[in-house]
């Protein structure tokens, strides 16, 4: 079986082709396009490139296309990417404007370009479907809640991969298998011996998720990707009264306030330098106090959420760093873990400095809490779940 995974932004299209054969899974091709204006054209180019490279003999050789859809109104899980999915994406297009319109359009275009392929959507919110109700509800009027305003959580494919891979590395095959089968069979009963993981996805957008024996118990992102930690240029957490205050005192309307919070906030807003942590670190090293403050605020947010999940789970067995910042910045990892010796987390400074972009353990050998670096693989999660979805559909009938 060949599964093409589509990863879209408002003006970007990235893809990876996977092959599943007799229990073997492998990535056989990938590519991408930036500054996309016409998704139909780049999808045609992608399929043509895969044919020219010999990865697809014809379009009939493509079994499925999996989409890492972000947020659907009244819809989550791993489902057929049909009109119901398009309607769910359109229903929340204003909440996720950088992604939902692009995914809805891509689904339409793949229907036309590859009519024989099954289209499957894996929503980023899927990993949080079993999160405790108290962790997802906001203290808003009931009518707001009924309209769909709640904490959904994002980066679900990444945190699911971390849940499974960290269980493997910590010699907990029971938990790894639970995560592996979760979207098909549900989480089932928790194992007798818990595995408590704090997963830190730190990149252009960032989130921290508490994972108890493979199941999310809470996450820093909420109703939209705007919330939680300071993002690259998105605000993160903000008091609800800040927007009407800014509208009144800065003489702007709500649309302009939304634009500024989405484009000029986050690390870029604090530092005044850039939305790229590499540029901010360079400025901080050169003595820029605002750049240094941006880094401190980022670390503060990570520690605040991580500490909350440690408390919620009654302890922690592992802290995992993933995504571009988490995988490649030993200084950020050290700052996040600093002073945690009293609760059982001790880094190995040499190991922490050595692990950049690869998988490894960065905690000391005698540390009761493990600290791990695990490169995420969101596309693999989408491909696996698409494959499982099609297998279940075949068995059902």
Summary, kept brief:
The chain is built from 16 helices and 12 strands.
Characterization of this structure:
- The chain has helices spanning 39-52, 83-91, 100-113, 133-136, 142-146, 156-169, 173-185, 242-250, 254-263, 266-271, 277-285, 289-312, 323-328, 330-337, 349-354, 378-396, and strands spanning 2-8, 13-21, 24-33, 64-67, 78-80, 118-122, 196-201, 207-212, 215-219, 318-322, 360-361, 370-373.
- The chain has 397 residues and is α/β, with parallel strands linked by helices.
- α2 (83-91) packs antiparallel against α3 (100-113).
- The chain starts with a strand and ends with a helix.
Low-confidence regions: none
* Cross-sheet strand order for the largest sheet: 3-2-1-4-6-5
Strand content: 15-25%
Order of helices and strands: EEEHEEHHEHHHHEEEHHHHHEHHHEEH
Top-tier CATH class of the largest domain: Alpha Beta
Radius of gyration equals 21 Å
Overall mean confidence score, pLDDT:
94
Through-space gap between termini: 18 Å
CATH topology of the largest domain: Nucleotidyltransferase, domain 5
How many domains, as an integer? 2
Helical amount: 40-55%
SS-derived structural category: alpha/beta
Q: How many beta-strand runs?
A: 12
Biggest sheet descriptor: 6 strands, mixed
Full CATH superfamily name of the largest domain: ATPase, nucleotide binding domain
CATH architecture of the largest domain: 2-Layer Sandwich
